[in-house]
Amino acid sequence: MAPSTTPPPPDGLLVVQPLRRRHCAECRSGPLSLLVLEEGAPRCLDCADLGHLVFLPRGDTALTRRSREASGLSAVVVRFNRRHGRYERQGVLVEEAALALAEERCLADAEARRRRRVRDARRRAVEDARFTEVFAREIQRLFPGCPAERARAIAAHASVRGSGRVGRSAAGRALSPGAVTAAVRASARHTETPYDQLLMAGVPRHEARRRIASSVERVLREWRLREAV
């Protein structure tokens, strides 16, 4: 499907990236990488009084918007897509000073966002450290025989943000005894029994858990009943 003589007009001036070799009907320069159609005839940007504008490719919505807002003169650049049978936007032409100003503003926004991300990360780190400490204390309340360092290690592992582990679940955040016990049980399974070795040897997970279940429960009973040294 060939492009129509005149593409549908967008909001403002229109510049075309031609698919075939075209020359300016006024100054005969060409072939043109960009042209303006005036009464069906191609004009180069200089003859169309747009030669002082610079091209900004599509992709950065904020930069495009700010560039057009700051530019006294601008144009939309389109190219015909034969496969889809329509003209598609490729970018805009704007004044160079407007583009520079828009870039400065976007950079300032990016720096502000970076500073906010740093602040948010610090706040989350403080919140996570506090929650890990609370989680560790709850472990030791339920399992007084669990060494303090071990309780902190279990709490830190279970409550990693974004991990999907039990400490990040709703029950874990609420310090549910079931969630706390599940975290302790998981730790005992991996560190106090040959569970990992069974998995590495190809034993199915459910069978491996069955084999070490009594060992895990023995550890939990000891930690529940024995005061930590």
From TrEMBL:
Pfam families: DUF2293
Location of the DUF2293 domain: 139-224
Superkingdom as given in the UniProt entry: Bacteria
Family annotation (InterPro entries): DUF2293
Protein name, as recorded: DUF2293 domain-containing protein
